[in-house]
Every structure is written in structure tokens, then in C-alpha cells.
Design a protein that fits this description.
This protein is mainly alpha-helical. Strands 1-2-3 form a 3-stranded antiparallel beta sheet, with helices on one face.
């Protein structure tokens, strides 16, 4: 079966091939043009070759007329743009699409691929299609959107919200963790998608921001805290834009105050563990030979109040055998850097973990994961699945609830709020707790930790210590 015109087979894949007219061969100094298509499917090859062959033919016509200003690739790119419009079709023209296409043709003009007249003709045609479509359905024409498209074609369009956000995120890469950066992008991208990526930053008013909060953020079935974070992300972005001269004022300033707080009673997102629930988990995890680190992970979090990644980052040198303390050397804030006395119930367990560690970590062999490559990423998920298999189905009982359980037990044991804040690494009244470290002595902290008790769970932990906490395969 003969191949379609313009298609050539090389081994198992196809290429596009165009034999130049003889008159053009003499001028161009070549016989044909060939480009690999990277496919072994003939139907795909025919589709891919279409705009390439069309571009080459247009180039040959230009060369035949003595126009040698551009290489064949320029004509191929033009043909690909036209081919994409024909292939995809445009069911719904919009001002956003007009601006996007105007920016594209302006970029082609800047690259010397098309002339100013071509740009003007393209924008005129797009606008005509948009106007006709709007008239057919009886919809109102967005005059300002058409004006933006005209300015985009002339290179006079101001910084768009999409470009501004991209620049903002790129600049924040150095001072935000990967996870925080991803969350910021996700929250700000909601606004970009709602207002339109090609809208100019300078045209975003306080009315625009207010409508976004009222129509998009406020109706969402999430907590007010989550809504506040979403608005705050946009506020931070526009604050940066204001300092860069992209906007004169921040339209999201004080916008968090407009978020309504529901007066309905709702269940808390987390709660503390009961002694019975802790017994269930400790008994279930202590003999788990498939995941032997889950048990010491739980003990360390429960009896120190540390966060997941604070526990997972503990190294052998963070364990002071003489003083019987653990050093948390970094965390989510300056207050997180602290010294935590080791509870008597887990002293032998911590000593064994430090002595038997093959890689210097108290919890060895953890593989970093997630956007920020945290050591606790995978084991935290494994822990959650494992406790559900033990019958703990209350979704409020997550790993972080162990920290709240420790704090509650310390307060119930008679420790002062200030001591507990220091032990947990909480900030106090806007001032990091490290400012109080010299005032709150280690003896006070040690007494507070010793006062933490979980009833029968303490007995379970002690039994495990005598039997050995590490299971070697």
C-alpha cells in the first residue's frame, strides 16, 4: 500500500518529506525538506505532517518570489497556529481568548516571524468572530476585553495576573518551603482562574476582590480558618505586587474581616486520645514486625509532645544520656527549637534507639518524601492507615492529636501554661518561647514531663521497655 503524499517511512517510524520545486531548489540550495515525526502510527503521522508540509509549501512560495528573510521553521510555526485553530475549533470566543491570541501574535511579530499588518488582521478577525457570536446569542459585548486585546497586540498590555503570580512565586522560592509554595500557588490560582489569566493587575479593584471573596471563598464548605488562609494568600501576593509597582493599592487589605463565622455548633477537627484508645494503639503497634518503627514513633510523640517531623529528625547526638533530655534543633518556628526532658516511661526505649541506630537517627531508615522531602512524610501516612486497621475510626484521632494529648496531660498534671508552652515549642503572646528559656528552668520542665500520665498506657510502655523496643528482622 503506497504511503500518503509527504509521508516517508524510516524503519518503524514516519517522517514528513517535501520535495522542493526545481526553481526553488536552485535558489535554496537543497533538494527536499525532511523532519522525523516520532511515531509509528500512520494516522498520527498524517495528522502531524499536515501543518509541517503546509508551512514548507508556503516557504517555497515565498522563496520562489525572492523572499529569503525567514527559514522554513517560521512558516511551519505559522501553519501550526492555523492548524490548531482548525483542529480544535473555538466554540466560545471570549475576551480572555482574544487577549491570549493577541499576545501570541505580538510575540511572533517581536520574533520577526510576522509583520504588524498580519497582527492587526489577526486581531480584527478574532474580534469580528467574537462580536458576531455575542450578537447571535444576544449577549453583551465586553468592550474593555476587546480594548485589552488591542493593547496586547501592540505590546501595551500591563502585567497580567497570570504573569504577576508566576513572578511572585519564582521570587518566593528561596524563602518558602516547597509545600508552602505549592499551597500559596493553589490558593492564588483560584483567583487567577476566576478573574481571568489575562486581566491586568492594575485593573483589579477592591470591588473585584470583594466579589471574589463573596462569590467564591465565602460559600465554600470549609472552616473560616481555611477561608482566611485563602484570602491571606492573595493579600500577600498583591502586597508584593504593590511593592513592585504593579498595583497602586492592595485590594485584599482587611478583606479577611468580611468572612463570616458560622454560629452553628460544630465538632472539633481533633480531640485528645483517651487512655483506652491509647492502650489499643500501643498494644496493636508494639508487636508489629512489618512496621517496627510505628511503636517508638508513637511513644516519642506521646511522651514528648513533639511534632511528627521533629520526632523523625531526632539524631543520636540530640540525645543527652547524662541530662536525660532530647534536643529539637529546628522546627516550624524559632520557638520550636528547645530541650525536652525524657519521660521516665520511655528512658530505656530512647537509650536503645540511640544505641542501635545504624544511620544516626533515632528512627532509622526513613525515606524523605513530599514536596519538602520530609522524613516523616511516608511513615505518617503508614501510621494513619495502621491505626485505622486497629479499629480507631474517629477521624479526629490523627497523629498530631498525640501532641494535644501530651499537652492536656501536662496541664492536668499541674504544670503551668508557660512551662507547657515551652515544652511544646509554642510561641507565647507573639514572642518566641526561647526568650523565656532562662526563666523557666529545666527542673520545672522535667517535673512537668514527669507529671504526664496515661494510666494503663504507661504500664504498656514499661512492659515493652523490659522486652526491648526494636524488632530486628
Amino acid at each position: 500500500m503506497p504511503l500518503p503524499s509527504g509521508i516517508k517511512r524510516r524503519g518503524n517510524t514516519y517522517s514528513a518529506r517535501y520535495v522542493l520545486p526545481r526553481s526553488v531548489q536552485r535558489i535554496a540550495g537543497r533538494h527536499d525538506l525532511v523532519q522525523a515525526l516520532g511515531t509509528s502510527s500512520l494516522s498520527d503521522a498524517v495528522e502531524l505532517a499536515g501543518p509541517i508540509l503546509a508551512g514548507w509549501k508556503a516557504w517555497a512560495v515565498a522563496v520562489g518570489k525572492g523572499d529569503m528573510r525567514h527559514e522554513p521553521e517560521v512558516y511551519v510555526r505559522r501553519a501550526e497556529v492555523a492548524h490548531r485553530l482548525i483542529r480544535d475549533g473555538i466554540d466560545q470566543w471570549s475576551p480572555e481568548l482574544l487577549v491570549e491570541r493577541a499576545r501570541e501574535v505580538f510575540a511572533m511579530q517581536q520574533a520577526g516571524e510576522i509583520g504588524a499588518n498580519d497582527v492587526e488582521a489577526q486581531v480584527d478577525l478574532d474580534v469580528e468572530r467574537y462580536v458576531v457570536q455575542q450578537q447571535d446569542v444576544g449577549a453583551q459585548i465586553d468592550v474593555e476585553g476587546v480594548r485589552r486585546a488591542r493593547r496586547a497586540a501592540l505590546g501595551q498590555l500591563g502585567v497580567t495576573v497570570a504573569d504577576s503570580l508566576e513572578n511572585y512565586l519564582q521570587e518566593r522560592t528561596g524563602d518558602l518551603t516547597a509545600q508552602s509554595l505549592a499551597e500559596t500557588e493553589k490558593r492564588c490560582r483560584v483567583f487567577v482562574n476566576w478573574v481571568g489569566s489575562n486581566v491586568e493587575m492594575a485593573t483589579v479593584t477592591r470591588v473585584t476582590a470583594g466579589q471574589f471573596v463573596a462569590k467564591v471563598i465565602q460559600p465554600r464548605p470549609v472552616s473560616r480558618v481555611t477561608k482566611t488562609k485563602e484570602v491571606s494568600a492573595c493579600r500577600g501576593w498583591f502586597q508584593w505586587a504593590m511593592l513592585r509597582g504593579e498595583v497602586d493599592a492592595n485590594p485584599f487589605d482587611r478583606m479577611q474581616a468580611t468572612l463570616k463565622k458560622s454560629k452553628r455548633g460544630t465538632e472539633t477537627a481533633r480531640r485528645t486520645w483517651t487512655d483506652v484508645e491509647l492502650m489499643t494503639v500501643l498494644h496493636g503497634l508494639r508487636d508489629d514486625r512489618r512496621e517496627p518503627l510505628l511503636f517508638p514513633l508513637t511513644l516519642l510523640a506521646l511522651y514528648t509532645g513533639m511534632r511528627l517531623n521533629e520526632v523523625c529528625n531526632l539524631r543520636r547526638e540530640d540525645y543527652d544520656d547524662q541530662a536525660q533530655v532530647l534536643h529539637v534543633r529546628e522546627g516550624k518556628s524559632q520557638a520550636a527549637v528547645r530541650i525536652v526532658p525524657i519521660h521516665p516511661v520511655i528512658r530505656e526505649a530512647v537509650a536503645e534507639l540511640a544505641e542501635s541506630s545504624p544511620d544516626g537517627y533515632l528512627l532509622p531508615g526513613l525515606v524523605p518524601g513530599g514536596p519538602d522531602r520530609k522524613r516523616g512524610h511516608s511513615i505518617g501516612k503508614t501510621w494513619g492507615r495502621r491505626i485505622r486497621s486497629l479499629g480507631i475510626n474517629d477521624r479526629r484521632l490523627v497523629f498530631h492529636a498525640l501532641r494535644a494529648t501530651f499537652i492536656t496531660a501536662a496541664l492536668n498534671g499541674g504544670a503551668s501554661k508557660e512551662v507547657v508552652q515551652q515544652l511544646a515549642g509554642h510561641e507565647r503572646e507573639g514572642v518566641t518561647m526561647t526568650s523565656y528559656a532562662r526563666v523557666l528552668s529545666l527542673q520545672l520542665c522535667r517535673a512537668a514531663v514527669a507529671g504526664v500520665t496515661f494510666g494503663a498506657a504507661d504500664h504498656c510502655a514499661n512492659e515493652t521497655e523490659r522486652a526491648g523496643i526494636i524488632h530486628h528482622s
